[in-house]
Design a protein that fits this description.
single chain, alpha+beta, Translation Initiation Factor IF3, 2 domains, 4-stranded mixed beta sheet
């Protein structure tokens, strides 16, 4: 009975796996497949939350109630805002700052975040440089709690 090892094939010796992968990457379709698979394996994904109300807000990272893992930085902005300087918390209901914060929470919810930390809101120079009201920019770090 003939064996099935690499030395006993009818096509000759088996190529090492890396040689087969190199051959695949020479083909344009092979490159596209490799890149798409690399994108899938680049990090964890979490099921999205129902909405921004499911994402807690902690202005400072030290205020978070438990350990967390960082997902990514989220950004939002509002053009032609009523921004006049640094934004202080708590925010005024219905303000442009509250709108930007809700957008940060919405983007974090889409990523499956439990919370956003290191929240920063402030005036940008983009609008003022173009002769209009300044932009209000917001950044935060989307995080998911570590199960303990």
């Amino acid at each position: 009975m003939q064996g099935f090892g690499p030395e006993n094939t009818s096509r000759g010796p088996r190529r090492p796996r890396c040689a087969r992968i190199t051959r695949l990457l020479r083909h344009p379709l092979g490159i596209a497949v490799a890149l798409s698979l690399a994108g899938c394996a680049s990090g964890n994904s979490y099921p999205p939350k129902d909405g921004p109300d499911d994402v807690a807000v902690y202005v400072r990272a030290v205020d978070a109630p438990q350990e967390y893992t960082v997902i990514e930085t989220v950004r939002a902005n509002k053009d032609n805002s009523s921004c006049t300087g640094p934004v202080d918390f708590p925010l005024e209901p219905g303000s442009d700052a509250e709108e930007v914060l809700t957008e940060l929470r919405t983007r974090a919810a889409e990523l499956g975040a439990d919370a956003i930390v290191n929240v920063s809101l402030g005036c940008g120079r983009g609008g003022a440089a173009m002769g209009r009201a300044p932009d209000l920019n917001g950044t935060a770090t989307a995080v998911v709690y570590v199960d303990t």
